[in-house]
Amino acid sequence: MGSKGFINYQNHSSRLTQGPHIIQSFDIFDTLIARKCVHPTNIFLIVEKKSGIEGFAEWRIKSEATLRDLESDYKFDQIYDLIQKNLKVNDQVLKTLKESEMTTELENAIPITCNIKKITRSSILITDMYYDDIFIRELLYTAGINIELPIIKTSFGKSRGYVWDQLIQNGVQCRHLGDSIHSDVEMARKFGMRADYSPIANPNILESKLSDSNLYQLACSFREARLRYFDAKEESLCESLEIQNLLNIPLILYFAAYIVQTFALNGDKTKFVFASRDCRLLHHAVRIIMSKLQSQVEYFDTRYWLTSRQSRVYGSNDYLQYCDELARGEECLFVDLVGTGASMQILRDRLNQIKSKKYTSEDFFVAQFTGLSAKEELSRRYNLAEKDMPVEQGTIKFALSWEKTVNNLWLEMMNYTPEGMLRDVIKIQDSFVPWRDQCDMDDFQQNLALLTQSYSLNAIESIINSYDGTIYSFMSSILSGEYIGVIQDMCNEVGPFLEHFARTYFLGAHVSNEDFIDFQNNHRSPT
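The structure assignment produced for this chain is given below.
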């Protein structure tokens, strides 16, 4: 400012000749924060349902459209003035409707984490929105954005370009990120901004298929989890998390709901032990679902079961004692992710030699069946003669067969945990210490697996907890024919990409290790 309060235009001109001042800018809605209910008009439907005022959503949409057509800036209160005129409600009802819309917006606000992490303290926010700054900041705080940044707010500034024009005329060039191709990208670039498109808030192919299959609440829960936790800069991690979102997490949730419904609610099992390495995510999903059933289920327990096909077939008496003690005194189900059940049948017969209880095929479960008979698998992988086959063949239950989903090897790779294969356990006092091979992954593979599992653990918990309905409704939706149909569609569409990913990052080490184990097994026989 000059000595008499006038702007110093000389200094301002000097600033312009030095080149533009570059600032990182962000759109707000569907760029930094999203709505659980996906589209803003769904907020109005929720308000209508809460209020019981028929036609509210329709008039809310029409009132905003009327003001938008006037082509001048408008505010939230003006929208509701038109609503009052058309619905003929009194001032108190109008106030309640306004408060209900704002409360519903806050209830639906979720963070878009991968974009939020790009914010710096020198960033600015630019939005075409009717809410005032105070409420917009409250929405941002609700979504976990606690940095107070400048907000440029108009009704049409981005879409008609005058905000971009004013910025560039004042020597400011934005590196802008937003979800609207027209307002955030095309118009911004027209006025000299560097603009990038962010489509992440849009439902992905899985979420769209779920919504189209009348599984809207599931679609919202999957989308919320993705937006809350997806954050990947490296191509390998980005691909891995996409596979989790589109295929593995949906499968794991199906297996988990199947186990709880079949063996806990409709069966007599009270304890569930989950095979180490492959079943970490499945164990987590079952545990979260069961925790929501505590008031209906008198007792349940879940454990991480130290196991492998090697330990089941060749493990020492200490290993048999470990498995027996894990299951003793309770109706226990031993769970593995994928296989024929062959090594489980051998374990069953070996456990029955201890005779603390009678084990049957009903005590074992494989989430996905490989397609081979147990006898074929025992002959191929363990070189067993007919006389050495399990005494009681029986049938080990499974939820899905690989023909309806994905290759068994790819399913294992989607659920990798960086632990070495368990060979045996050693009993020390009253505890059992695992005896493992060295992990067959290199440092890159271990890090990729750990980051992937960390994301999936959070996403699974979020999907279950954010579902808008009872846990019984959640399981019913997950176990529905419509959901299975979506999974099968996703397996067909994502399968080639999954195979490419697995071959690129994991297959070589996995096949080498499995071939070595099979070679060892073909030169020995079960204990």
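Interim note for the steering committee: The first helix runs from residue 9 to 17. The mean pLDDT is 89.
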